[in-house]
Amino acid sequence: MKSSLISSIVLASQVFALPTTTSVRANTAVKYVPFCSLSTAGVNIAGFDFGVLTDGSQTVSDVYPPLSALGGPDGAGQMSHFVKDDNLNIFRLPVGWEYLTNYNIGTFDTTKLANYDQLVQACLSTGATCIIDIHNYARWYGGIIGQGGPSNASFVQLWTQLATKYKASTNIAFGVMNEPHDLDINIWASTVQMVVTAIRTAGATSQMILLPGTGYTSAGSFIDNGSGAALSKVKNLDGSTTNLIFDVHQYLDYDYSGTHTECVTDNISSAWQPLATWLRANKRQALNTETGGGNTASCEQYLCSAINFMNSNTDVFLGYVAWSAGSFDSTYELDLTPTLSGSTWTDTALMKACIAR
């Protein structure tokens, strides 16, 4: 998504999913099957990533933590509601690298890490899976990690610290990087391998690790741009690929950017079916950690259709994590933040129609 203005704060957390084809399915009504068998379904809880641009720079003062204790929205209450009332069981918690280190590419800033950890602990307390997502587009201020920008060693240091902190939490998942783009995929796969090795060596031996490809890790281009082939070479310490899951995104608006309230496609023929076929042939699985649309009839139709397709292919798709709740409000195009009146939470239209189970 492109930057939006929320509660007088400029939100520059951009998310793009750009498949290689632009085919659009007929506008046929689709009935959603609410009790799906996908193992995971959830939503992003954004706020600690606010201010991050696609060049990997972050204006840390734009961060709006989704924690009432830190002056933001009640992200803890949102997650509790989503679990209890909507049967969701996974949350992605995006955060900027600059925020965690306070602009120091080395060790963490103790206060800022503690702030982010409050969100992580609130997530863990629900019993859901909690994805730690570094939301930097494989960059630090324009430089690509391991490709002329920050060194692989710096990136490995970041993940070694995170894995060491959360290695005992079985419900933690590690999202290596949000939406890498415009890079050498084979070199990037080598960087990802270093991170996987570091996470496992730190003692996080069984948690899920999400492997993102280039092209904003779009489901529609994951095969054609070489991401699938390159990342298939990434292995655990024992040579296996257990719990190494491909991380894919896909939006449904006309340019696949996730910046418009109307949807035009479910991406089945252009993205999900080809990816499902490839995953099945290669005995691998993927998790869709960003998708969504506006609270409109067109997005209800097409997102429900896409989720139905994933529900019919649970051998290769673990589930979906929609974008986004947390610190967004109703002025944001892809808002999924529930509203609280007294003790009652009310979901957005798209959450009710497609995402809740």
Quick recap of the structure?
Helices cover about 30% and strands about 20% of the residues.
Q: How do the strands line up in the largest sheet?
A: 3-4-5-8-9-10-11-12
How would you classify the helix and strand content by structural class?
Answer: alpha/beta
The whole-number mean of residue pLDDT values reads: 92
CATH architecture: Alpha-Beta Barrel
Q: What is Rg?
A: 18 Å
Count up the helices.
Answer: 9
CATH class: Alpha Beta
Domain count: the total is: 1
Q: What share of residues is helical?
A: 25-40%
Look up the CATH topology. Answer: TIM Barrel
Q: Write the element-wise H/E pattern from the N-terminal end onward.
A: EEEHEHHEEEHEHEHEHEHEEEH
Outline the low-pLDDT stretches. Answer: 1-35
Largest sheet: 8 strands, parallel, barrel
Number of strands: 14
**CATH homologous superfamily descriptor:** Glycosidases
Terminal Cα span: 25 Å
Strand content: 15-25%
Apparent shape: globular
List keywords for this structure.
disordered N terminus; glycosidase; single chain; globular; TIM Barrel; 357 residues; two-stranded antiparallel sheet; cellulose degradation; signal; alpha/beta; Glyco_hydro_5; 9 helices; EC 3.2.1.4
